[in-house]
Amino acid sequence: MASKEKYTVILPTYNKRRNLPTGFSKIHSQLGPSPLSHWELVTVDDGSPDGTLQVAQQLQTHYTPQRIILKPRAGKFNLGTVYVDGLKYATGTFVIIMDADFSHHKKFLPQMIATQKEGDHDIITGTRYAGDGDVYGWDLKKKVGFEGGELVCGYDIKVKGLVI
């Protein structure tokens, strides 16, 4: 990885305290544990009542505030606005949008980065709606709500070759 390249992973959270330690660890292991590796994780939490922010703060102490940037919000808002807010704090030259419920598996980070470099894409995200992807174990209400969040997020907008 060239020194001028920096990766920002935007991770929206709401009631994900149990997922954060594993998720942060997997991101850390995929992007590089070295202090010289150039990446950051912007976590935008929508006022989770389950203590997600407190767990994220503990993880921030372990991984450093330079690596883990916490941006809590006062209440639960639309998923699309989480991404917009996360982008405001991203300092990376490349942005990767993931989620905290493991539907975007962290093992795909190297592949996402390779795709980003090949296409010179500013932003890349995983999607469960392409190819053989799907959502398992979600009821119809959650599926419809998530799809609505994607539409508001603007996945149809091209940002220097947005990959979906």
In brief:
By secondary structure, the chain is α/β, with parallel strands linked by helices.
List the helices and strands and how they pair.
Blueprint (H helix, E strand, L loop, with lengths): L6 E7 L6 H12 L7 E7 L6 H12 L4 E5 L6 H11 L4 E4 L11 H11 L3 E3 L14 H14 L11
Helix pairs in contact: 3-5
Describe the structure.
The protein is of the alpha/beta class. It has one domain (7-153): Spore Coat Polysaccharide Biosynthesis Protein SpsA, Chain A. The protein is 37% helix and 16% strand. The protein is built from 5 helices and 5 strands. It has helices at 20-31, 52-63, 79-89, 109-119, 140-153; strands spanning 7-13, 39-45, 68-72, 94-97, 123-125. Strands 3-2-1-4-5 form a 5-stranded parallel sheet, sandwiched between helices. It is globular and about 40 Å long. Keywords: Glycosyltransferase, Transferase. Pfam families: Glycos_transf_2. Residues 8-143 form the Glycosyltransferase 2-like domain. It is an enzyme of class 2 (transferase). Its EC number is 2.4.1.83.
